[in-house]
């Protein structure tokens, strides 16, 4: 992680002082949110369209397109997306749809190819999206190939990620969207890390699932044998940049700092950083040599979601011992998210339908949750305003 020692020391001092004072960063007041925000299908469809289909989404690490003429095909909320890195090295995004009869060009996954050929009629495209070959062209008839390129999606590469918008014709300025948060994400050097494992997880509704990524209030109770082994519950420093956030958790080694001069602090030991890119990316550095990247997408209904969970190692494991440690980390985060967070999330999703309560509460000690839900409402409204 490319944060300077002084920056890590400042964050450690900040969390240490909160711990000493038996407090945490606080919101001004308790926030109340209607359960309809979690259950109403019409609201869900409106918000997921306005936010997830009209804002830039971090769909891949730059390292997932490792060189010229590489690609990644994926289905994102029912939208077939094709990410490529062209011969010129530029990242691009398209709808993964042949312009002849609509067949997907590539099955979900990654690969390397100078030409991408439709499996139906062998129309062929290059990684810049241009139609470069038509089987039996002399018998097909006159068409303008320049108007039959793959349908582009707005795309930008920034801070180690490839961002794209799922709606054709909608543009964005990634520098404006990330703002002053970009240097903090860039400092993580994620495109230099090794992808050890990647998997998909079914989850409860988007908001129920995402709430668990944004607070540590539950960690000691729900995660006593996983994340809670090392992290102090109900303790966080919280910073925001527009809709984006950084959470700094304290680790259970903090008491070692009592009476210890700051120049003797082990800066890799005492805090855990979570960077949250709005609306759905969590970058969690739980241990120094490992990182968990989570990309969460709404499912087709208000009570479903899908998470791409990527386990990153600072360096590719080269020995049996290093691979074993990486596998242990991977198993730990899988258990914490799938078997603990999402296990209780599914129960919450069902319980909210019972009518037991009309609202969900976010405490003052949950400022990151309050910030996120305010951002959802604000960006949904802004999307409408831009179209009116």
Descriptive report:
By secondary structure, the protein is of the alpha+beta class. It has 10 helices and 20 strands. The chain has 2 domains: 5-54 and 180-387, Naphthalene 1,2-dioxygenase Alpha Subunit, Chain A, domain 1 (Alpha-Beta Complex); 57-171, Rieske [2Fe-2S] iron-sulphur domain (Rieske Iron-sulfur Protein, 3-layer Sandwich), CATH 2.102.10.10. Helix content is 28%, strand content 30%. Strand 7 and strand 8 (124-126) form a beta hairpin.
The helix/strand series, from N terminus to C terminus, equals: HEHHEEEEEEEEHEEEHHEHHEEEEEEHEH
Structural class: alpha+beta
Radius of gyration: 22 Å
Q: Would you identify the regions where 5 or more consecutive residues have pLDDT less than 50?
A: 383-388
Q: What's the total count of β strands?
A: 20
The domain tally reads 2
Distance between the termini: 43 Å
Give the strand content. 25-35%
**CATH architectural category of the largest domain:** Alpha-Beta Complex
What does the average pLDDT come to?
95
Could you name the CATH class of the largest domain? Alpha Beta
In what order do the strands lie side by side in the largest sheet? 13-19-18-17-16-15-14
Fraction of residues in H or I helices: 25-40%
Main β sheet profile:
7 strands, antiparallel
Shape designation = globular
Number of helices: 10
Find the CATH superfamily of the largest domain: Naphthalene 1,2-dioxygenase Alpha Subunit, Chain A, domain 1
Question: If you consult CATH, what is the topology of the largest domain?
Answer: Naphthalene 1,2-dioxygenase Alpha Subunit, Chain A, domain 1
């Amino acid at each position: 992680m490319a944060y300077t020692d002084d920056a890590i020391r400042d964050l450690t001092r900040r969390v240490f002082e909160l711990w000493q004072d038996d407090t945490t960063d606080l919101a001004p007041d308790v926030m109340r949110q209607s359960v309809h925000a979690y259950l109403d299908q019409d609201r869900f469809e409106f918000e997921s369209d306005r936010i997830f289909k009209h804002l830039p989404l971090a769909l891949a690490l730059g390292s997932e397109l490792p060189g010229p003429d590489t690609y990644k095909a994926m289905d994102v909320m029912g939208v077939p997306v094709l990410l490529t890195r062209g011969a010129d090295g530029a990242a691009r995004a398209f709808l993964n749809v042949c312009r002849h009869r609509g067949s997907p060009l590539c099955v979900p996954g990654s690969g390397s190819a100078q030409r991408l050929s439709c499996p139906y009629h062998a129309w062929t495209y290059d990684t810049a999206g241009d139609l470069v070959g038509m089987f039996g062209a002399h018998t097909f008839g006159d068409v303008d190939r320049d108007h039959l390129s793959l349908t582009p999606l707005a795309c930008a590469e920034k801070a180690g990620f490839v961002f794209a918008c799922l709606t054709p014709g909608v543009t964005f300025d990634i520098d404006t969207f990330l703002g002053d948060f970009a240097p903090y994400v860039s400092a993580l050097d994620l495109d230099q890390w090794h992808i050890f494992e990647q998997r998909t997880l079914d989850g409860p509704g988007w908001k129920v699932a995402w709430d668990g990524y944004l607070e540590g209030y539950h960690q000691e109770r729900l995660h006593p044998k996983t994340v809670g082994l090392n992290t102090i519950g109900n303790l966080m420093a919280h910073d925001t940049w527009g809709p984006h956030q950084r959470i700094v958790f304290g680790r259970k080694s903090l008491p070692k700092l009592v009476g210890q001069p700051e120049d003797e602090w082990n800066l890799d030991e005492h805090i855990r950083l979570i960077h949250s890119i709005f609306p759905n990316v969590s970058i969690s550095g739980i241990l120094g040599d490992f990182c968990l990247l989570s990309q969460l997408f709404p499912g087709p209904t208000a009570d479903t979601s899908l998470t791409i969970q990527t386990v990153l190692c600072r360096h590719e494991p080269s020995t049996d011992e290093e691979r074993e440690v990486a596998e242990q980390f991977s198993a730990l985060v899988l258990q914490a998210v799938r078997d603990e967070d999402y296990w209780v999330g599914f129960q919450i999703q069902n319980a909210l339908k019972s009518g037991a309560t009309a609202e969900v509460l976010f405490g003052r000690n949950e400022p990151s949750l309050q910030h996120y839900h305010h951002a959802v409402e604000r960006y949904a409204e802004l999307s409408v305003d831009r179209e009116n």
